[in-house]
Amino acid sequence: LLGDRLTDYPLEHDLMIFDCPATLGPLPLMALAASTHIIIPVQLEPKSIQGAAHLLEWYYYHCKHLRLKPTPEILGFVPNQYDARRAAHRQMLAALPSQLEQMNIHAFSEIRDSAEFVNASGQGLPLAIHRPSHQAKDDFKEIASKLATLIGSKSKESVKV
């Protein structure tokens, strides 16, 4: 439904971000059908890693079931809320790239845990505007660069993530 709607009434944006809830209900399914690319955030916690594995199963099943052509490309996983003081976070962060590599999925650099993300969100502002000098904003450079390259490689075609 969402994909059809966007086809019938295209937006004039180079990039759309569908930020879906962790549930695997109808909204993420509609977003999947309307997407060309996917980025998967994952917390470096055991339950989140398991949830990400279920998400991949869900993704492959629904791409096949919906006969999506082309299948939305997984640009990568984004480890987030990373706290270097936690041994479990360090261990999972170290293991994640090799696990994803076996599936030909990229692991982006980690996004640190920072209260400033919550503070900026509470003000309705991006971190770069809320706290322009805060170092955590630099954690998104790799993702932003990848998206800019992707948008630049598409001639007049709209990219929806």
Q: Quick recap of the structure?
A:
By secondary structure, the chain is α/β, with parallel strands linked by helices. The protein has helices spanning 2-8, 26-34, 46-65, 87-101, 115-122, 127-130, 141-153, and strands at 15-16, 37-43, 73-80, 159-160. The chain has one domain (2-160): Rossmann fold, CATH 3.40.50.
SSE blueprint and pairings:
Blueprint: H1 2-8, E1 15-16, H2 26-34, E2 37-43, H3 46-65, E3 73-80, H4 87-101, H5 115-122, H6 127-130, H7 141-153, E4 159-160
Parallel strand pairs: 1-4, 2-3
Helix pairs in contact: 1-2
What does this structure look like?
This protein has a two-stranded parallel ribbon. The chain has helices spanning 2-8, 26-34, 46-65, 87-101, 115-122, 127-130, 141-153, and strands spanning 15-16, 37-43, 73-80, 159-160. It has one domain (2-160): P-loop containing nucleotide triphosphate hydrolases (Rossmann fold, 3-Layer(aba) Sandwich), CATH 3.40.50. Mean pLDDT is 87; it is low at 155-161. Helix 1 packs across helix 2 (26-34). 47% of the residues lie in helices and 12% in strands. The chain is an alpha/beta fold.
Q: Helical element count?
A: 7
Intertermini distance: 16 Å
The largest β sheet comes out as: 2 strands, parallel
Query: Architecture in CATH?
Result: 3-Layer(aba) Sandwich
The CATH topology turns out to be Rossmann fold
Number of separate structural domains: 1
Q: Structural class of the secondary elements? A: alpha/beta
Strand ordering within the main sheet: 1-4
Overall shape = globular
Pick out the low-confidence regions.
Answer: 155-161
Beta content: 5-15%
Overall mean confidence score, pLDDT:
87
The total count of strands amounts to 4
Oligomerization: single chain
Please trace the helix and strand order, writing H or E for each element. Answer: HEHEHEHHHHE
The helix fraction, in percent, is 40-55%
Radius of gyration: 17 Å
